[in-house]
Amino acid sequence: MSGFQTLFRKEVLRFRKVATQTVMAPVLTSMLYLLVFSHLMESRLRVYDAVPYSAFLVPGLVMMSMLQNAFANTSSSIIQSKMTGNIIFVLLPPLSHWEFFSGYVLAAVVRGMVVGSGVLLVTVPFTEVSLQHPVWVLAFALVGCGLLGTLGLIAGMMADKIDQVAAFQNFLIMPLTFLSGVFYSIHSLPPLWQDISHLNPFFYMIDGFRYGFFGISDVNPAVSFVVAFAALAVSASFALSMLRSGYKLRF
To answer: Which of 107-116, 145-154, 187-196 has the lowest mean pLDDT?
Structure first.
């Protein structure tokens, strides 16, 4: 497993070297979301009884930050390595496809968890957030970061240039994240849009993650976890099949 350990360490060091961009910037962005939305909506909206809107926002912002940064970590690393040609230094060693997959995805999970922890810490002065089911919080955080890290790996392998990865993020990841209930409960939507929301796997991750904080959710957390884990299993199987074939990695 020395190959996996080296690749994992290399990927963690990569985002640590530019922590201002990879960690501090998303934490600041989430804090601004909280300040603006809570200021506008705090006195006008209450989604759950006894849960202020600012507190309701926090789990969604934390999960959104984790998902987006886990995706960015793997996708940016792969596409940059392909464009500069240094991907060859990862392909030449006798790494199995499992080691390649695990090294990149687990590093993405680490970045997602670091960013999520930072977002949670900066919200402490602005609102009180309980943690009623920490096991669910950890479970959804790990599965969510793993899923988006895997999707980032797939996007990086499929793309030939940075703007293709950006298109993947802007036209798929970003809409699915914003339409997953980060800023609202789906019960506030018309019936048609509630049904459409149930087709979005990101909704289940955020709803289950929020349950870990408040003990309240729109869907049973066990169901949400099964859906999120199934999405991870499918995407991981697809990514591993691409790695076995060397799709767009071996020239």
So the answer is: 187-196
